[in-house]
Amino acid sequence: MARRAPAIAIEITEGAVRVRHGERTLTLTPAAAPPEADGAPDFVLPLDDMTYWDAPHDEEEIEIALMPAILAAIERECDRHGLSVEFD
Known about the structure:
The chain is an alpha+beta fold.
């Protein structure tokens, strides 16, 4: 029987978006949207910050194959809360 991959859980706080996958966590701090931008998203998350997991797994790279699932989970959670997100 194949082992099932752990689900991706997203937690949105005022200052961060937290991604949990199994025992690993990734904390993303949104970048500021341009002040003159009309219709700016609620969160702008830099893709460059999605390279390594938080400590104690900070030497473990986030697998490229997992990135689409992480981005989709973040988008779903933002939609659920009526928030908009953009990845930069």
